[in-house]
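I had to read the description of the data format several times before I understood it. For illustration, here is how one protein appears when written out as sequence plus structure tokens:
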Amino acid sequence: MIRDAYDTATGWLFEALLQPVMYEAGLMDWAEEAFEWMDFFVFGAIQIIVVTAICLPLEKWRPVEHWASQRRVWTDVTYTLLTRLGILPLLGFLLFFTASARIEGWIADSGFVPPTLETFLPWLREWPLVALAFYIVILDFAEYWRHRFQHSLGWWWALHSIHHAQTQMTFWTDDRNHVLDDVIAAAWFAVIAVAIGVPPGQFPIILLVLRLAESLSHANLRLDFGAVGERLLVSPRFHRLHHGVLSVGHSGKNYGVLLPVWDWLFRTADFNRGLYPRTGDPGAPAAYVSGGWFAQQMVGLRQVWRALRAR
């Protein structure tokens, strides 16, 4: 029922807003691709609405910090709007649409059927909610290691440090990333999801769950989940330690997105529940801290080039 309502709304928006413009511009040969992009756009808007409705009241309730000016926060809002409604979906389409179509064609022609999670655990086909939980855990594990690599590889840290430079961290900071970093992250997530056989109907649910978890963990919110809860789910306090001024670069802690168990298993956990440190990276370029979106993107390209040359 939810999926049907979503498809109906997306179709109506496409026919009412985008299709007439494309018709006038003579671009109807691209109608199918434009509809797929509209699907990204609508889903991004839903994510923003859900996350804001949950996180904004919580930040008003128990903020960690108060700031006289929130100009840097508005930079992060710009990141979210561009990432969720425009840049990333468009880049994803341009970079991956043709490649994915060719790969799917090659696989179909060869007759090879890639193994999936349900190939090894056939009983999951009868338990979709259990399968959904399995997929979330596996993808969360993959996101933990992607995050570790962002901190351990010099060129990747040059991009990811834009995210850590924010001294006024809020739930909007989740999307404060370089475009190249976002493209790599999207490709990483999509490839693993396809490899383990995530059903198309469950993929948006998984994205929304992890997106909400990440946004909440970045919130300017004085909240922990208790001695037991802190070891079950990543809290704002747990992740704030990761963004603290003493926890940047290779020495970072608390990399988990949804589940702290990976930090516990791989000895990167810090469960100091009484600590809400200031955020930011003292070694970040000035543009990473106080610059606008475009300046940060340009400096990011220079930083990653310097890191690659240094190798």
The chain has a mean pLDDT of 86. The chain is about 65% helix and 0% strand. The longest helix spans residues 31-61. The chain has one domain: 2-310.
